[in-house]
# Entry
Amino acid sequence: MSNTDYKVTIAIIFHNQINTVKRCMDSVINQDYQNLEIICVDDASSDGTYELLRKYEEKWPNVIVNRLERNSSANISRKTGIEMASGEYLLMLDGDDCLSTDACKALIEEEKNESVDILHFKTNIINSGNYPQELINGLEKRIEPLYKEIHGKNVFAQCYIYNNYAFTLWNKMYRTELLKRAYSMIETIPIYHGHDLYQYFVISQLAQSYRGISDKLYDYYYGDGISGYIKVKEDQFYKQCDVIVAAHLTMKYARQYGDVTSIHAAKELLSIAVNECINRADKYLEGGWKVGIRTLLQLCGVEYLLSGLSSYYCEKNTDRTIDELRMVLAINEILHEKEVDFCTGSVAIVIDQSEEDNELSKLSLLIDRLLHHGIKVTILSDSHIDSLDSYGIEYIGIPNPRDNDFWSMYEHICEFKHILESGNFDLVIHDTLSGSVIWDYFVCKSMGVKLCCYYYNQERLDRFLDDDFRNYIYLSYLVDGFMVFRDAKPYLYGNRLQGLYTLEDLFIQEEKPEFLFLDAFYERIQIFASDYYFTLSALEDCKETCENNKRKMTDMESNIGALEEQLDNANYHIVEIRKSYSFKIGRIITYIPRLIRHVITDYPI
# Structure
């Protein structure tokens, strides 16, 4: 059988890549292998890309060009090319990359030796964006093939469960029959960034065999196109965050066609996608957190966003205070755009079940007062609290999230949001000791529900705010009010803690408690708007001072090192001197008896 018996389709997608069309097309028309079909899908380019592709089509009979009427994304362009393919095998290529001239010949020869559904080859990464070599080396390692043959469900598992090879589409040759089946199940939805994640998830679920080889057959220009990490504008950021859409579609496919393993993998991909986009917003987005939060809310909803933010910032240290402050203010401002009328009919109290009974008894006084005013009270806790049974109020269980656990936080947020929706609560009174208070706050704001934090005494409030400056930033500026059950000193914090109430205040009032009408929150936000830049400046000055002190400490350590070296030298000389004197004293001691004998002999009495 000659090496041209198999027809190979090369499916290439283009969008506004006039500068790389020639490089890409020349690499495929100059292949050593003759039996080729070259399908070019132009995604509504406006820079002359389509016109140049038409010239190739006119000159080469095996080149087919298809132009999409409007910009539809890589996901749809790729699917269009696969649907047009007629070869037995298929290679995917991006319009800014190219193939080595012997790629098709080498791959078909490899297929003849032992045929597989997916043949994975190595990639030559060309650093066209002047990125650090460590980044290029890391990417090269991530997309390296798995150098063995695998079969059945292991094709999927080795990629998405064990991460032993990457889901990139363009460094593999496929049986076209496999791709036709897979792409018939892939949804025709625009995905500009991250479509590989979704498409290969489906492909690997259906594939029965895979093998990796060490031949470098693909030139990947890192930094051209949408690869790389540079500052981006809002429209570019939105497209890059399409990876969240891809992850959602992956989850949808897994639930419809997959098993428990694939659903678990899809959930992990979704959490990674959300965190990746949060990282991009944090580091690469022009316009900062306000732009990023708005986009991420549109793409993934408040539940996934807050779960991602909680795990993302759990990994950061206290040096991130300024960035966290920017993030908190941005999300607070956006969530407050959803404003609803406020009434006073139903209250949810979130309780940490670890509280001691004597402190819970103080909370019971609050419950008693609320019930006295005809307000419905519901307790939210991760376990039942026996000391509150006598009130006959409703208990709803809510799981406590684990630190730095995306899905644990996601389950908590979804359950908390569902409880607020079904209970039609007007106010949430929250225990500040709970690790979820910040994220619960954002859920409340997204639904127009007010939130008040409570403390059992002034000492605990002081300690809470002193323990971590971020607690002070988050709660003193963002929650709708504070409640202290005894020893409250509202004047202690001035305007920054408006809405601080004691339990005695509630007993004095015969009408419904005024803390349910905390309009002072909005005044506090305005006060903070002017104070925010001062706070940032102070933090940045503090950071600069710390860096200066760190440099001084480094210099001092250097000086200490020099002094220690001098001390070591002095100690060495002392030891040598002691050795010398010990030797001399020893000789003197040795000669004393001889000297005495000599004196007695020469000078007898």
Observations:
- Residues 317-322, 337-343, 487-536 have pLDDT under 50 and may be disordered.
- The radius of gyration is 35 Å.
- Residues 367 and 377 are 7 Å apart (CA to CA).
- The chain has 20 helices and 16 strands.
